[in-house]
Amino acid sequence: MRLHSWTGAWRLLPVLVLLTVPHVKAAQQQPKERHYYIAAVEINWDYSGNDPHRLGPTYKKVVFREYDKDFRQAKTHPSWLGLLGPTLRAVEGETIVVTFRNMATGPHSIHPHGVAYGKQSEGANYFDNTSQKEKEDDVVQPNGQHVYHWEVTSDVSPQPDDPTCLTYTYVSHINVVEDYNAGLIGTLLVCKPGSLDELGQQVGVHHEYVFLFGVFDEAESTYKPGSEADHLKYTINGYAMGSLPDVSVCAYASVSLHLLGMSSEPEIFSVHMNGQVLQQNQHKVASVGLISGSTATASMVALHTGRWLLSSHTIGHVEAGMYGFVDVKKCDSLRAPQRRMTVEQKRHSRVWTYYIAAEEVIWDYAPEMPEHIDGDFKFQYLRQSSTRIGGKYKKAVYTLYTNASFTEKSEPKQKKKELGILGPVIRAQIRDVIKIVFKNLASRPYSIYPHGLTLEKPEEGVNYPAGGNHSHGVQPGETHTYTWRVVDEDEPFEGDPRCLTRLYHSAVDTPRDIASGLIGQILICKSQSLNIRGVQLKADKEQHAMFAVFDENKSWYLEDNIRQFTDRSKVNKADPDFYKSNVMHTCCRTTDLNVNSLTAINGYVYESGPVLGFCNGEIVTWHVSSIGAQDYVQTVTFYGHTFELNGRTEDYLSLYPMSGETISMDMDNIGQSGHTMPFFKINA
């Protein structure tokens, strides 16, 4: 049944004749219809994008494609869309009319999310006690056709604080798992009034891209392959291993990003574009978190030309092939905005110089082991023996020095103890310049890469997978100076905290460098948020907590640790128990021996870090982040305390992998607390 705002309106015609001309015009205004002609068609698909250097097996797929109204000629399908169907768009008050023809060999349908529809336009096959007439939309047989009507009502359209266009999906709903893995998925944008032109394109946007971070399991597809090989594909728009084609934007252009996460199994995605700062829900972000079946709308303005990595930072995703590249090019039609700093801005801007070294240390995950720790837990994870490394590992860490001679360390001992394995906290305000004089005192190449800053290509410090650039890092014994300019595009929004919590890490080989210990936090602050010593204003104290999963099996120093702490001849690296014993895992406090990891906050496990002291009534700014080998959303609680996050009062915090948040807490509950945070004590 189609939804109508004016059902039976023709009966009012005699009355309308008597109305004045303005009233006649108003009555004649009907909801606008946007027509799409969509077919399900079968294709052969190569996840390598026909790259001659990476040719793999070809799979039979079925996909949504747009046609002319007679279904005689397929419309042009941008190559970068890949498996995705055409992007459908409509604004509030409009009706999307989809004429769907099934050109495939099996039954299919189209089921939308994010719009209103009647039962004859649902496109979902399930038992719902409806009549046969109302179920014609559920299953469209081969060579069959059905017309769907979807309404963009005020109830489903974007609200004032929402982005211009909300991102949704449409899918075939005969067998959701099989249909998705076969390739039947597309994007539906529900937009604010006046935001689309007559051709359905977003007004005021130079580039619009849809990126599906999709895991396809060909073994669960409608067209199951005959072999028993691994058919799990980690892709962006159906392209794996950097083969995503033809994604380019102009420098200084506005870019609308519509992000989808999809898998037939639970999956977490942490979407990151190197060297760029994104906007999401009126907040500045360095990455966008997605779960299977979720969507997000973001935007950006790319400033610097170059080839930039687009990927998911969740453990194993890049290694599995879930990455592509975005080319930022100089276009004659767009130029850099002309900005002149005011006298006041010049007075508050400054250059922050940090002398940071990468150096190798023996790190103790449990320097102060509590007496009440469970003995079995200690035996399983911290005991050193001829076949177990124990709780001490050779690692690489970032260390702050006083000057370019790198002879005198700068971090106070107590502060360094609280930060644990973290490198020094880097801070800067908008229109400041960060200079990192980086000396590699370790035995292999390393670098420093910051999240949350708009970077010039030479300052990135990242080694890309095949198909991208190659920045080999700083060699042992060498020194390199990074210059990062904190530009207006990096500035926190009004609804953001004064200082945003971001990460920095070595990125010569990101997973292995992080596993080896090279991590830290960087704070990107609003103007006039720091004093001349870099201390945050309007906060009594500042604390840092990083939930870091260190998979020591991926560390560059695994062989060194086996050699130093075990009898190498007795160690079997293929032993699952040996592998588990080397995963120092950020989580909550637990004595569950089925958890194959250790609790580590700032590199300390199981309450072994320092107890932090506060005075009753102090306002503390916490910078909390998650980094390392996580494949889940980290939940953080401060038992007995609430906190303020983006203007809301909360009692728990959710962190996607490789992300950070800034929260403000009133320390008003006297006593000792902790559990999923560093333990702290509040004194009267």
Automatic annotation (TrEMBL):
Q: Does the keyword Disulfide bond apply?
A: yes
PANTHER family, per the entry? COAGULATION FACTOR V, F5/8 TYPE C DOMAIN-CONTAINING PROTEIN
Q: What is this protein called?
A: Coagulation factor V
Q: Where's the Plastocyanin-like domain?
A: 83-192, 421-527
Keyword Disulfide bond present in the record's keywords: the answer is yes
**Which GO terms of the molecular function aspect are on file?**
copper ion binding; signaling receptor activity
Q: Which family does it belong to?
A: Belongs to the multicopper oxidase family.
Q: Which residues form the signal peptide?
A: 1-26
Task: Provide the coiled-coil residue spans.
Answer: none
Q: Which UniProt keywords apply?
A: Disulfide bond, Signal
Q: Which GO terms describe its cellular component?
A: plasma membrane
